[in-house]
Design goal:
This protein is mainly α. It has a single domain, classed as Vaccinia Virus protein VP39 (Rossmann fold, 3-Layer(aba) Sandwich), CATH 3.40.50.150.
């Protein structure tokens, strides 16, 4: 027999991300989506490669994409991320600076 006891009302532990409506991409999903993007993308042989993430959140998808792009192409990437949460943008910026230094 399984007894589950809850001492707090349902959803009382929802953190700020969820209460603001934010949904962050799990790393495994971000890696899968990045793989699919690279498989389907027509990468030009020269010039800048621009990537825009309109809901960057904590930067998981851009991070996965940068990590999967071949090193020779990385220097041509121009990455831009937008979000409505200023704190999320700071987290994403720190995360991406580790992988994508200019």
């Amino acid at each position: 027999m399984l007894n589950i006891v809850t001492s707090a009302p349902r959803y009382s532990d929802v953190d700020r991300q969820k209460s603001d409506g934010a949904t962050y991409t799990p790393v495994v999903l971000a890696e899968f989506v990045a793989q699919q993007m690279l498989r389907e993308a027509a990468i030009p042989e020269r010039g800048k490669i621009r990537v825009l993430d309109l809901a960057v959140g904590d930067g998981a998808l851009l991070d996965a994409l940068i990590n999967q792009v071949p090193q020779a192409i990385r220097k041509r990437l121009e990455v831009v991320g937008y979000d409505t949460d200023p704190e999320a943008i700071q987290v994403a910026a720190r995360r991406l600076r580790q992988d994508f230094q200019t």
